[in-house]
Design brief:
The structure is a single chain. This protein is 35% helix and 34% strand. With 88 residues, it is α+β, with helices and mostly antiparallel strands. It has one domain. The chain has a 4-stranded antiparallel beta sheet.
Length: 88
């Protein structure tokens, strides 16, 4: 499924709007479209943060196809970190 994601991010006081077209897996989209798109949006925001040197970034608004607001879902996504089972 192809969607258009729009983000408004505040990077250290500088607000910026970006949009782009992305593909979301059809199987994931059928299960929960908002969450499936939110995961793709989260990954894109992380890429944008890397491009700005990991500066402090506030997610102000995230929508897909101009009408589906998924800001709260994207803010709640946390990266998966495996358990630290090191012996020291």
């Amino acid at each position: 499924m192809k969607v258009v994601i729009q983000t408004i991010l505040n990077v250290e006081g500088n607000r910026g709007f970006r949009n782009g077209e992305f593909y979301v897996r059809d199987s994931e989209f059928k299960k929960d479209p908002d969450f499936a798109v939110a995961v793709v949006a989260y990954e894109w925001i992380q890429q944008q943060k890397r491009e700005t040197g990991q500066r402090e970034t506030i997610i102000e608004k995230v929508t897909w196809n101009e009408k589906n607001d998924i800001t709260h879902i994207v803010r709640e996504i946390k990266p998966f970190l495996p358990e630290d089972n090191l012996p020291f």
